[in-house]
Amino acid sequence: MGQKINPLGLRLGTTQSHHSLWFAKPKNYCEGLQEDQKIRNVIKNYVQKNMRISFGVEGIARIEIQKRIDLIQVIIYIGFPKLLLENRPRRIEELQMNVQKELNCVNRKINIAITRIANPYGHPNILAEFIAGQLKNRVSFRKAMKKAIELTEQADTKGIQVQIAGRLDGKEIARAEWIREGRVPLQTIGAKIDYCSYTVRTIYGVLGIKIWIFVDEEK
């Protein structure tokens, strides 16, 4: 049987870089890991609460965290910066206060920066949010998958694979359905592949969405 592995973990050090950059002693490592998770949760919850979300998409592609002794640098890669209203520093200050409150750290400064990404629908996280929004609105899962693939083709990618698993269309028996367009060479380590798994809660139960996007190949 095919042994599945996370495409991002497999490519670390070649085409993929870490989303968190910091060093800790083994006994403090789990604290640092939980800290990262808290930061990401606070940012996502803040974006969900305060933004006028179009198409049900938050638009956060990824959150990178870099830690030093006295500073935590957080970079938010966002597809639709209007959601976070970049021109209003008040929003970012409020977000920094929320993170500081959650972490309860006195002697470390938190700095949050926002970076806009060029093709939002070329990123699996944003695409998964789009599909999740469609499924919550009871759109047929096949229609949602095809629409997602159309959006990705506009973003100039070389291939995409989408898989949705669970009680699709409210059927009694759970199953997994997938669709692929273009090439997705998962075994080629030189291929830059973006991946994400996303959970969506519908009225029928929990559905899982997995998306692989073949961005580019290293020469």
Task: Set down the secondary structure blueprint.
Layout: H1 7-10, E1 20-21, H2 29-50, E2 60-67, E3 71-78, H3 89-103, E4 109-116, H4 124-136, H5 141-154, E5 159-166, E6 175-182, E7 191-202, E8 205-217
Helix pairs in contact: 2-3, 4-5
Plain-language structure description:
This protein is α/β, with parallel strands linked by helices. The chain folds into two domains: 7-114, GMP Synthetase, Chain A, domain 3, CATH 3.30.300; 120-212, 2-Layer Sandwich (Ribosomal protein S3 C-terminal domain), CATH 3.30.1140. The protein is 31% helix and 31% strand. The protein contains five helices and eight strands; from the N terminus they run H-E-H-E-E-H-E-H-H-E-E-E-E. A four-stranded mixed β-sheet has the order 1-2-3-4. It has a four-stranded antiparallel β-sheet with strand order 6-5-8-7, covered by helices on one side. Helix 2 packs antiparallel against helix 3 and helix 4 (124-136) packs antiparallel against helix 5 (141-154). The longest helix is centred in the N-terminal third of the chain and has 22 residues, at 29-50. The two termini are 31 Å apart.
Determine Rg (CA atoms, Å).
Answer: 19 Å
**CATH H level, superfamily name of the largest domain:** K homology (KH) domain
Shape: globular
Which structural class fits the helix and strand makeup? alpha/beta
* Amount of beta strand: 25-35%
Cross-sheet strand order for the largest sheet: 1-2-3-4
Largest sheet: 4 strands, mixed
Q: How many distinct helices? A: 5
Unreliably modeled segments: none
Please report the first level of CATH classification, the CATH class of the largest domain.
Answer: Alpha Beta
CATH topology of the largest domain: GMP Synthetase, Chain A, domain 3
Task: Bin the helical content.
Answer: 25-40%
Could you give the count of β-strands? 8
Number of domains: 2
**N- to C-terminal distance:** 31 Å
Instruction: Give the name of the CATH architecture of the largest domain.
Output: 2-Layer Sandwich
Mean model confidence by pLDDT: 87
Write the element-wise H/E pattern from the N-terminal end onward.
Answer: HEHEEHEHHEEEE
